[in-house]
User: Fold these one by one.
Assistant:
Number 1:
Amino acid sequence: SQQGEEDPQALSIQEGENATMNCSYKTSINNLQWYRQNSGRGLVHLILIRSNEREKHSGRLRVTLDTSKKSSSLLITASRAADTASYFCATDGGYGGSQGNLIFGKGTKLSVKP
Amino acid sequence: NAGVTQTPKFRVLKTGQSMTLLCAQDMNHEYMYWYRQDPGMGLRLIHYSVGEGTTAKGEVPDGYNVSRLKKQNFLLGLESAAPSQTSVYFCASSYSMAGVYNEQFFGPGTRLTVL
């Protein structure tokens, strides 16, 4: 079963615009992570935000976490064609307890047109 | 550092055949994971390991077995392949510090087709 659900499923924007993706989850978490996957490749870690953090930045990426609403958002500013990829949120889901296992959403497919 | 590597990259099997997927990491990570990804889906956890000699079931373990005889290697076996196991398989590794878990590092994936 999937814990995280990304919204929207697909997003198409022009280069230079900002892209915002949202993630909702169901149970309490220790951390929430965002990953990027280029077509046919493995996942690359972007940002990890812990449950006691509300906002985190990394370059053009900004992640927020609202544990009361069980939701997170990923903002990519000044997007580039190279940002075209699928973006997944993942929460520590607890298969076997708190052992770092992640549950992934189905992802948001971002297309940035030059 | 190579990070996480997976072999093979592609494989085609006939129903009933067996095979082993190999994952290797050179980061001395304690934790290793096997996922499968089906079209339009996120990753689903098959099996995981929290250390050498230990393995545990994830969300979708049926039809798969794993072994972690060495810390750096995590093997995924299919004893009798079925078409439903056609998927892309990803291995990942991770670490913890002072009991706090961190990000996972992924391999490039193995694309498996079962005819």
Number 2:
Amino acid sequence: DAMVIQNPRYQVTQFGKPVTLSCSQTLNHNVMYWYQQKSSQAPKLLFHYYDKDFNNEADTPDNFQSRRPNTSFCFLDIRSPGLGDAAMYLCATSREWSGTGVNEQFFGPGTRLTVL
Amino acid sequence: GENVEQHPSTLSVQEGDSAVIKCTYSDSASNYFPWYKQELGKRPQLIIDIRSNVGEKKDQRIAVTLNKTAKHFSLHITETQPEDSAVYFCAARFMNSGGYQKVTFGIGTKLQVIP
């Protein structure tokens, strides 16, 4: 059973043309993350939502935005994709609470973005 | 913030031999250390994790050890098989300045098991 779903799996866009990637989850986790992973590199956290609270990483470009309309869905918007934004984008979820709560991150299959 | 160093970046072993991947972290407040396996073109998948109140954890052929004093943790795979070939990422979780838990990944180790 799919737990973290990403659509589309492959996305091709043109330089400068806005694109939206989507993520949904059936785990009812309160935290959702977006990572960018380039070839042969570790996943790099772009931002995450803790419930409705948005937490942007300091080095995430303004070109990247996110929306979380409800617990299940989270979107990654790239306003003006550049060639350097071509990568795999991974969505992940976790259940977080204070103390020693379960913190495993569950990753979606990713969306591979190509910028022409 | 947290800094996680991982080595080696590539590792080749003969089938049946053991593989060891080592990571160090900088933030002594880190309290959770997962290991992910990522096959080519697929999502990272958790294979084992350890919390800061435990020194060692084992799951069949996979084990993880944690030395809090030295701030390093290691992944041990015994009796390696060709299907163990993948990229392995270590990670450390810590609390960032905004009060949020954050996971920082190592650069990854590409493991090749030679039949």
